[in-house]
């Protein structure tokens, strides 16, 4: 499974490296962003995008071998990694600034719909999960792990802090509100989540209580 995941990442890098028509590229990206925003991720097909862009379907597949590749490319334009990876010098303000940038992107275009669609599609099969990780998740997760790693290097949080767990807590909280829609993705949530994550990161890890053996009782 690891080897297949590596092959997908290598394929994506090869695709990115091929020369392409800039005019066709922009036409496809613009059409895809418009259709994803209007129809949603699941109801938008590569065929519809190609038709709206005025190019052949194979032109789209030549540069983006799957719909998730194309969606990830548009998401990167709407919420670029370079703009949502702040370095303010403090963990809490880093997290809050990152969240505010993300939430702005989610409310000003189809970024939220794209992310929701990618997450839902990834549940279809093991192959879908590997595609999601190769095309989108692994690279974006680096942003969150870097935030906590810098804080640990500055001495803000203990060396024993579990950065992988903290990253999952941060991403999970965002995705929960995004998918369930039970509460807003707003400034209050950004500040509250940042404060609680810093508190969690600063605390020394505790041992999970051992569940009593029922047979021994």
Short description:
This protein is mostly helical and 217 residues long. It is 70% helix and 0% strand. It folds into 2 domains: 21-64, Orthogonal Bundle (Arc Repressor Mutant, subunit A), CATH 1.10.10; 79-202, Orthogonal Bundle (Tetracycline Repressor, domain 2).
Describe the structure.
The N and C termini lie far apart (42 Å). The chain is built from 10 helices and no strands. The longest helix is centred in the middle third of the chain and has 29 residues, at 126-154. By secondary structure, the protein is an all-alpha fold. It has helices at residues 2-17, 22-39, 46-53, 57-63, 67-78, 91-107, 111-121, 126-154, 163-180, 187-202. The model is unreliable at 1-17 (pLDDT under 50). Helix 8 crosses helix 9 (163-180). Helices cover 70% and strands 0% of the residues. It folds into 2 domains: 21-64, Homeodomain-like (Arc Repressor Mutant, subunit A); 79-202, Tetracycline Repressor, domain 2.
Q: Level of helix content? A: over 70%
The helix-and-strand class reads mainly alpha
What overall geometry do the principal axes of the alpha carbons give? Answer: elongated
Beta-strand percentage range = under 5%
Number of strands: 0
End-to-end Cα distance: 42 Å
Average pLDDT works out at 85
| CATH-assigned homologous superfamily of the largest domain | Tetracycline Repressor, domain 2
Could you state the order of secondary-structure elements as H and E?
A: HHHHHHHHHH
Question: How many whole angstroms does the radius of gyration measure?
Answer: 20 Å
What is the CATH C-level name of the largest domain? Mainly Alpha
In the CATH hierarchy, the architecture of the largest domain is Orthogonal Bundle
List unreliable stretches of 5+ residues: 1-17
Main sheet specs: none
Q: Write the CATH fold name of the largest domain.
A: Tetracycline Repressor, domain 2
Return the domain count: 2
Total of DSSP H or I helical runs spanning 4+ residues: 10
């Amino acid at each position: 499974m690891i080897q297949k995941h590596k092959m997908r990442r290598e394929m994506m890098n090869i695709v990115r490296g091929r020369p392409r028509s800039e005019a066709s590229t922009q036409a496809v990206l613009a059409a895809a962003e418009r259709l994803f925003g209007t129809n949603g991720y699941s109801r938008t097909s590569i065929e519809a995008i190609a038709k709206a862009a005025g190019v052949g379907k194979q032109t789209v597949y030549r540069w983006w071998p799957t719909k998730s590749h194309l969606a990830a490319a548009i998401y990167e334009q709407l919420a670029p990694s370079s703009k949502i990876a702040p370095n303010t010098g403090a963990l809490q303000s880093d997290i809050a600034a990152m969240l505010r940038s993300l939430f702005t992107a989610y409310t000003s275009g189809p970024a939220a719909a794209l992310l929701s669609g990618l997450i839902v599609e990834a549940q279809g099969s093991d192959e879908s999960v590997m595609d999601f990780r190769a095309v989108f998740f692994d690279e974006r997760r680096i942003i969150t792990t870097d935030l906590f790693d810098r804080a640990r290097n500055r001495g803000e949080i203990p060396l024993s802090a579990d950065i992988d767990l903290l990253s999952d807590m941060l991403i999970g909280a965002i995705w929960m509100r995004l998918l369930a829609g039970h509460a807003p993705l707003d400034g209050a949530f950004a500040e509250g989540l940042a404060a609680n994550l810093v508190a969690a990161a600063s605390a020394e890890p505790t041992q999970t209580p051992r569940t009593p053996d029922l047979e021994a009782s």
